[in-house]
Specification:
Layout lengths: L1 H18 L12 H5 L11 E15 L2 E14 L9 E7 L9 E14 L2 E6 L5 E5 L4 E7 L8 E10 L8 E2 L6 E11 L2 E8 L5 E13 L2 E17 L17 E10 L5 E3 L4 H9 L15 H6 L8 H13 L3 E2 L10 H7 L1 E2 L1 H14 L4 E6 L19 E7 L5 E4 L20 E5 L2 E6 L6 E12 L4 E12 H12 L3 H12 L2 E8 L7 E11 L1 E3 L2 E4 L21 E2 L3 E11 L4 E3 L6 E5 L2 E10 L2 E10 L3 E2 L4 H15 L3 E5 L1
Parallel strand pairs: 1-10, 16-17, 23-30
Antiparallel strand pairs: 1-2, 2-8, 3-7, 4-5, 4-8, 6-7, 9-14, 10-13, 11-14, 12-13, 14-15, 18-19, 18-21, 19-20, 21-22, 23-24, 24-26, 25-26, 27-28, 28-36, 29-35, 30-34, 31-36, 32-33, 33-34
């Protein structure tokens, strides 16, 4: 008995050991436990894990000015085939295309893959050929690298340093990512001559320490001894934060530290307040020749616009459409978003460009056509919310075009909206806080989500046969985002056969004929018509069917038991379906279903049924008038959609009288 008890303790100890892993803070020496681990105990579904991540930010003085340095060290473990993606890394850094006075450099980049092969540790170092640089826009470049020999079980280590002349700007630090983090540390050391507002946000516990450290610099051949305020942030076992179809930027809600410069106070020399407002950013943009200067120009297509008679089109919406059709016939969007743009002549020569390239040209063309247009600058939804408490050009990554239709009405458009219309933008650009900037006029905040909406109305006429076959005709009218989504699905489909098959599989139908209108038109509307059959279950004198025929919500999008992050719908939505089913002769409805009414804070659904002689009617109405919900709302939203899904699957019985 004692021996069995002792063996049980050994097994229990081994099990507990396998279920825990302690951080290894020694660089360049993965532990045996790290090399042999096959899953992360706190998240067994994780395809990779950050074992160790450390970022040190500190100041130095060289070449007559301050510099800020970022030392980064990261160790990761690949646990599943999908986790091999962590071997590919992108670092974005600042380097102006023409002015190299201030820039950032990446130095000391090293990366190693550690693998256990036949019981031996094999180290593979990254070669220079696996590192590439490319320019993103006039101010930014990116460095890409790939760690070699990475497979399931590999431990990866990489390190690098960013040397930045932008000493007045400190990058935001994010503690969490889309994979769990075992250990992370951020150490920010700021000399006494600099004043930064440091803000820590996030719901996970982090340990913070503040202490002082000396810094010696040499200015004009003289040494200066400064005191630095060091703020250290430590966190362990942080969960992954993953974006999904209902969350644009998970990092925005994770643990992070931001530092905004308030002022520089050098004794006997510089005393400067760096606090700024968004009005200051407006002025900075309008005074920049590469931004505000671009808005003053006529377009190279002015003669073409005049020759086509576009300025004489009375309706401004139609005039805008004529300008846009001319632009997209000459330039194609290359799939990238940007803030700065190339010259109009280069864009036209290349025949392709970013949304910023095309938007600058579009604004110039609209001015040539007699339409006032202005840039609306923003941070796209996938990069997080634009802060109100502190302003900086660094937060802006793109802009759309604001079109002044009259003194009181403005519409919005972006050149990446290949399938859109006025106020029909790609969902990632539908931010609730963007900045309209104009020369000589105070900037103002605009909500691009306010005019955005998806609307769809559908009517289905059906004839039910005694063997349970529905012969149907469906007519749908789609507006705004719904129309853009249908156009996009057809544009991206390999061919019409693939697209028709997708519709059939999704709805369990056989399509006999299909037709759409305005597929390539610049319009807010599309019409879709189809004839199809659907087989219902039939047994003896009974037929079982769903009276909605094409189920609008057949599964809930919210399946997790818990959720710690908010819910963001892409835009406001409404959908109406009216289905009418003519019953077979001699058949009747066994039991009339009760109407369903569901409501929750901006979302409501109503499903009703009626029987008029041999005609069975069903109506479905869904409205979503709110786009943001907190994590605290999750359980109620989950219950709402669970209930809706069940109601949509309701089967009624038709029987022979």
């Amino acid at each position: 008995m004692k021996r069995n008890f002792f063996l049980a303790l050994v097994v229990l100890a081994q099990t507990l050991c396998a279920q825990t892993i302690e951080p290894n803070l020694k660089w360049g020496k993965p532990t045996e436990q790290e090399l042999k681990m096959t899953e992360y105990p706190d998240d067994k579904d994780a395809d990779a894990v950050v074992l160790f991540h450390k970022t040190d930010v500190y100041y130095g003085y060289a070449e007559g000015d301050f510099k800020v340095y970022y030392g980064v060290k990261t160790r990761l473990k690949v646990l599943k085939p999908e986790g091999k993606r962590v071997a590919d890394k992108i670092i974005v850094f600042q380097e102006n295309e023409t002015n190299r006075t201030n820039k950032e450099m990446i130095t000391g980049l090293k990366a190693t893959a550690y693998n256990m092969e036949n019981g031996k540790l094999v180290k593979t170092k990254m070669e220079r050929s696996m590192i590439n640089e490319e320019r993103l826009d006039k101010n930014q470049k990116q460095l890409k690298f790939s760690v070699p020999q990475v497979k399931v079980g590999t431990v990866i280590e990489y390190e690098y340093r960013i040397e930045s002349d932008y000493f007045y700007y400190i990058r935001d630090w994010y503690a969490q990512s889309d994979i769990p983090v075992l250990y992370t540390n951020y150490e920010l050391s700021i000399p006494e001559w600099f004043s930064f507002n440091v803000e820590e946000t996030g719901s996970q516990p982090m340990e913070k320490k503040v202490y002082q450290a000396p810094l010696t610099i040499f200015v004009g051949g003289q040494s200066e001894s400064l005191t630095c305020k060091v703020q250290s942030f430590n966190a362990r076992r942080l969960p992954a934060i993953k974006a999904d179809d209902y969350l644009w930027c998970a990092e925005d809600y994770g643990n992070k530290v931001t530092a905004e410069l308030a002022g520089i106070y050098i004794p006997g020399a510089v005393h400067k307040n760096y606090s700024s407002t968004w009005a200051d950013v407006d002025n900075q943009l309008m005074g920049d020749e590469e931004f505000g200067g671009r808005l003053k120009s006529s377009s190279p297509l002015k003669a073409d616009i005049v020759a086509a008679g576009i300025p004489n089109i009375a309706d401004k919406s139609e005039r805008f459409a004529a300008v846009w059709n001319m632009l997209k016939s000459k330039v194609r969007w290359n799939g990238n978003y940007a803030f700065w743009g190339k010259s109009a002549s280069k864009i036209l020569k290349d025949g392709t460009g970013t949304n910023a390239d095309m938007n600058f040209l579009l604004i110039n063309m609209l001015h040539d056509a007699g339409i006032e247009a202005s840039p609306v600058v923003m941070r796209s939804r996938d990069l997080g919310n634009l802060p109100l408490s502190h302003s900086s050009l660094k937060y802006l990554n793109t802009f759309v075009v604001g079109i002044h239709l009259n003194d009181s009405t403005m519409a919005f458009f972006d050149s990446s909206a290949e399938d859109g219309y006025l106020n029909v933008l790609p969902a990632k650009l539908l931010v609730n806080r963007a900045r309209l900037v104009r020369k000589g006029v105070p900037g103002e905040w605009v909500n691009l989500q306010a005019p955005a909406r998806s609307r769809e109305t559908t009517a289905i006429q059906a004839q039910l046969s005694a063997d349970g076959l529905l012969q149907c005709k469906k007519t749908s009218r789609l507006y705004e985002e719904a129309a853009a989504q249908l156009r996009r699905s057809w544009r991206q489909a390999k061919d019409s056969v693939e697209q028709i098959n997708k519709i059939q599989e999704r709805n369990g139908i056989q399509i006999q004929s299909y037709q759409i209108s305005d597929r390539t038109s610049f319009s807010s509307r599309m019409d879709e018509q189809m004839s199809f059959t659907k087989q219902c279950d039939a047994a003896g004198d009974m037929i079982y069917l769903n009276p909605l025929i094409m189920i609008p919500v057949n599964e809930s999008p919210f399946t997790d038991a818990e959720r710690s992050l908010p819910i963001e719908f892409p835009y406001k939505q409404s959908e109406t379906i009216n289905a009418y089913i003519k019953l077979p002769e001699g058949y009747t409805l066994e039991d009339m279903p009760k109407p369903t009414v569901l409501k929750f804070d901006g979302i409501n659904v109503r499903i009703t049924y009626n029987l008029n002689g041999d005609m069975l009617g069903a109506q479905f109405k869904l409205n979503i008038d709110k786009t943001f919900y907190t994590a605290a709302d999750y359980q109620e939203i989950k219950a709402f959609f669970d209930h809706l899904t069940e109601c949509n699957k309701s089967i009624i019985t038709i029987k022979k009288a």
